[in-house]
Fold this protein.
Amino acid sequence: MNKIQIIKEKVNLADYISKYTTLNKQGNKYNCKCPFRDHSDSTPSFFIYDNKYKCFGCNRSGDILSFVAQYYNLNYTQVIEKLSEEFNIQYIQIKEQPVYSQNLKNMQIYKENLRNTPHAIQYLLNRGITKWADYNIGYTDFGQFANRLIFGITDFNKKICGFGARSLDEKQPKYINSSESEIFQKNQLLYHINTRSEIYIVEGYFDVLSLAEYNICAFATMGTATNAYHFKQIWKYCSTPCLIFDGDVPGKSALLKALQIIIPLLSSTQSMQCILLKNHDPDSFIRAYGITAWNSLPKLSPLDILWQELQGSPLEIAKKREQIYSIVNQIQDINMKKTFFDMLSLKRIKKFEPEIKNFLNPVNIIDQIFGILYKNSNLCLIFQYQIAILEVGEKYRNYQNDALLISEGYLPSNQWSLLKSVNTESVNPIEDLENLLFEFYKQTELEELLQLYNNAPTEKLWTLITFLLTKFKSDNNI
């Protein structure tokens, strides 16, 4: 039994994680709030079963080794050292050099094989890879890698730690990798050829190779989702890498999951950009359109991507909007968090927050909403960012400014006198809004909305407000 097996058998994952968060036992499973420090988990979304874990909030998963690696930002060797010391497991230093040396020798053999295999060279040329001799690309016709291109996978110390392989005869699986080992852990590796101050993060080997033909530096995941460890390593070389995904539904879904992990890690020295390609991956795009078109691709901020998701019914938009604020609120860097909220405040989302241009009778809904906020200065504080981005006409600009002043501890101006229709004795803002909605909208719609936030009054209140505003615009053709 090797030391990895000993660690996995000796260390109980639930007991280990209980040091970081409170566990709730449910039969033979455990449930808890996510222990990772960059995930602010309001409701338990972390599950432990059979010595493995999965968080449905931040999408992390794995065993004791991956948990320690992700929690402490350690590489595989450091994880084994740490756990061996903690649990008094005899640890033998990994003899990495012979393994790396053998990998290097194997790579030279694979490269020589490629030079003597015309059909493999032609395949590369057909895909636009003319500099193949400069890269760690080879060929073999033996064993599990039979009739496959071989890609040397280097770690962040530039040592070949394993190999990937691509079938040339469409034999399935199309791509295979070296077996997991102490130095080859796919979720801690990225396929790359070189490192530069500008880095693109892509999904495939040929994305990396095709971009390298144009002296563009790219890193590709090894068939795993982009994770926090990947970005922490990339930020050592590039302060603003660019994450690229296909513009189709699966690609956008993968990008959104990545953003939920990455946005909380952003700071003044750790930023990122995004590109969504339509009907192309980076490989096919640059081969079809060239470097000029590539350099002209619009690079979006993470918030741009999130705002693009604000589609659907008023109810769906309200839910997505709350999710955006929840993600931004997890940013650990205080200055970056403030910057993001300021950016949210400046967004003009006309499809969502309607601009009320006229004073409409018999009941002015905007008056009533701002009145409810006015009466509750704590709500002005809680919703100061949401209030700031409401698109309102000049008549209501003073209301908006006063609500923000209240949030900063100032008294409102003479705009109080305009709140004629508001019952200033009411102390229950949620009840006020519920009554307002019941008066104007179908009861079934309201009941569906209220079920969303039965146990979260603050979120429920703002959802009521955004739902009402959006409906008001739709119903009045504004």
Remarks:
- DSSP finds 20 helices and 14 strands in the chain.
- Residues 92-96, 348-363, 409-427, 440-457 have pLDDT under 50 and may be disordered.
